[in-house]
Design a protein that fits this description.
Blueprint: H1 3-24, H2 29-33, H3 48-52, H4 57-69
Length: 70
């Protein structure tokens, strides 16, 4: 992929994320939050492993394998 195409793709992705953020956030705030639409890390928006102690999919699969091998 040439340098110009990479630049065009990056600009297209930025415009897409700005348009998406504009739907969620009013005023000029969407420009700051377009790169990462998760603007907070509260227990509702954050990582479930951190807040609820849930296992990752990889850990769940390993637990299932361990139980089957016993």
């Amino acid at each position: 992929m040439s340098k110009d195409r990479k630049r065009a793709r990056r600009r297209q992705d930025r415009a897409r994320m700005l348009a998406r953020a504009k739907r969620y956030y009013p005023g000029q705030r969407h420009q700051r939050l377009a790169d990462n639409l998760a603007s907070c890390s509260c227990w509702m928006c954050g990582n479930p492993r951190r807040w609820h102690g849930e296992l990752t999919m990889q850990e769940r699969r390993q637990d299932m394998r361990d139980r089957d091998n016993e």
